[in-house]
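pinging the channel bc i need a second pair of eyes. not urgent but kinda urgent?? the chain im working w is below, pasted from the shared doc
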Amino acid sequence: MSDKKRVLHIRVTRDGKDDKVNVTLPLGVAKLIRFGPIATELRKRDIDIDELIDDIDDIDDGKVIDVIDEKSGDHVEIFVETRGAEARTPAETTAG
């Protein structure tokens, strides 16, 4: 069994300040977010969380959503990551 685990990382900030939401979930658990308050907030920002979750197993590591709500100033970022011995952080997956 591999020591690497795939996770979904969701980060929401406002105007580049402190995180409003900063959550990392194993993919199996992440598939349940379509039923909770995080999904409601993402839907308000026209992010199709159902499509993202349905396709998540086929998505490569890296940033998959990067949206700024011009009215509220909220910045939503969603990453898929592999954690383990060779795993990379969200910053590393979006660098260069």
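so The longest helix spans residues 37-44. and The chain is about 25% helix and 35% strand. — does that match what u expected or am i reading it wrong
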